[in-house]
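The authors assume throughout that readers already know how a fold can be written as discrete tokens. Each protein is reduced to its one-letter sequence and a matching series of backbone shape codes. I therefore recommend that a typical entry be quoted early in the introduction. For illustration, here is how one protein appears when written out as sequence plus structure tokens:
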Amino acid sequence: MSVLAIPFVVLVTVIVGSCLQRVSGMGLGLIGGPILTLFLGPVEGIMVINVLACINAILTTYSMRENVAWDKWLRIGPFMVLGSIPAALLIARIDTSALLVLVGAALLIALGVVVFGRKFVPEMRGTGPSISAGILGGFTNTLAGVAGPVITVYAQAARWPKSILAATLQPCFVIGGLSSVLTKYFLGSGGFEGLHWLVWPCGIIGMCVGILLGKKIAGHVSREKAHTLSLALASLGALSALLRGISTLGA
């Protein structure tokens, strides 16, 4: 693969993911996590998506700030830091092939929980479930670049109004992305040394383009359709990462 192919993949992936996240509340981590894992590896790929998802969520939080329920965020967001620590320690102790399998499997499980969770997860009340959702969301975000599925299922079980769900997810992604990067970096389980410098400007440009496109189509594409497309694309990427990891185990 040519030197410029990776930055181009990052550009296209981030445009699509940011656009769908602006419309449905999730997308960048769901789509970017498995795709960048395939092209950059399970450590660097998720580190890049953690950084970009954090920046994207900051911008999206500002644009959707009127609908953010900060009291609900306080019962989830800070506890994501606790979940990021064991995930970072796990990443430091397993090889690349096993990590690919783990990332792909974690993504598929998370996606399955989103698809079937609303049918089987009972109504939740109190602080215990919200704290658990924050810890588990921090773990999956650090490991696989996705916190949205876990928090979305909890929010549905807690009967959050739809009007605040997509907006309140964004500051959760901010603290999730920040804690994921910092814990992996300082615990020695991740870094950016091997990345081409064009990855970052391509990621930022893709994010800005995606958010602008998302704003334009938000009134024409339903949140449910955008959410379904995000899940479908993420499932294909997660399955590809899982199969690649299995094929290289023991190689």
In short: The chain has eleven helices and no strands. The chain has one domain: 5-248. The chain has a mean pLDDT of 85. The first helix runs from residue 5 to 24.
